[in-house]
Amino acid sequence: MKEINKQIGVIERYTHILPVTDKTPIITLSEGSTPLIKADNIKKMLGVNFNIYLKYEGLNPTGSFKDRGMTVAVSKAAESGVKAVICASTGNTSASASAYAVRAGLKSIVIIPEGAIALGKLSQALIHGAKVVAVEGNFDRCLEIVREICENYDVELVNSINPNRIEGQKTAAYEITEALGDTPDYQFMPVGNAGNITAYWKGYKELNETKALNLPVMMGFQAAGSAPIVEKKFIKEPKTIATAIKIGNPASWEQAETARDESDGVIDRVTDEEILEAWQDLAETEGVFVEPASAASLAGLKKYLDNGDFNPAYSKNVVCILTGHGLKDPDRAVETVSRPPVVSDSVDKVVKCTGIK
To answer: Does 72 lie in the same domain as 211?
Structure first.
């Protein structure tokens, strides 16, 4: 696999495919260049013949894929002369927006649904000095409020409905292709607000147009209690432990369906139980710690293998997108694992307790 320069950020690395000019200030935290991990242990566990790769976006500067789009969105916001950026968020967008706003010298405003954001993510926005307001409503209502504010005040909206976010996020498709030397055959990924599947598909289509590379089949997965695209209707009260994809009315709904249909893929659902099982598989089998929503990709792959719906004889490379780091939602891990035993300060006691002998 091709080595990449991790010292530069998305804009510097992909200037030629991004909407930036010499007048655009580059607001960066050296995002991107995340590892594509070959998951041989999971391949063995699942008993498949194709290669499985994990695109670990949790190793971006603020711990999620959002940084790819945020560097472009905030850079363009700074170029436009606005003094503040604003977003609605279930967590990761708020962390990213507030960090990049600090770098740009801009004020950041974050609107969150009350009680529906993981502590690890909220703490990031707060430590970066964002003005955070919790609303008595879900994410979709927060986004409606943010949109109305942007229509009436001089602030820049940096949710994924901002096209600059999609432009930045599409660079992950380029990275995967560069690392593999080709596009993957299938890509499994979580779907929440649906901006990410939209961005990847945009990147792959550009690669198809410029380099005549094959298009991957896009396999998107929503949480079962928060699956509006699957159910073909808005979900007024979405429910899932995977807070990052707890969205009942995705902003990029139509674009996600386009990615699904044009790639002959699917957008399906996985249960919270399936998500948590895959979440533990990643940690215990490959040593990769992600937030629960990230594991929807592997949960989707396992579901399709178990159901016999996925057995591509020609497939060589399958990529699962892992969107955020496990420390985004530390409470979930603490609730799941057993507390360590306490013994006296004796070598024999420690040896006995650890099972070394």
So the answer is: no
> Is position 350 within any domain?
no
Burial of 283 (0-12, 13-18, 19+ CB in 10 A): middle
Q: Do 320 and 280 reside in the same domain of the chain?
A: yes
In a domain, 76, yes or no: yes
Instruction: State phi, psi for 88 to the nearest 5 degrees.
Output: -95, 145
- Residue 346 located in a structural domain: no
Count the domains in the chain: 2
Domain CATH code at residue 292: 3.40.50.1100
Can you give the residue range of the structural domain that contains 298?
Answer: 10-64+165-335
Mean pLDDT lowest for which of 11-20, 26-35, 99-108, 340-349?
340-349
User: Does 150 share its domain with 254?
Assistant: no
172-199 pLDDT per residue, tens? 999 999 999 999 999 999 999 999 999 9
Is the pLDDT at 5 greater than 60, yes or no? no
User: Which of 111, 140, 161 lies at the terminal end of a domain, its last residue?
Assistant: 161
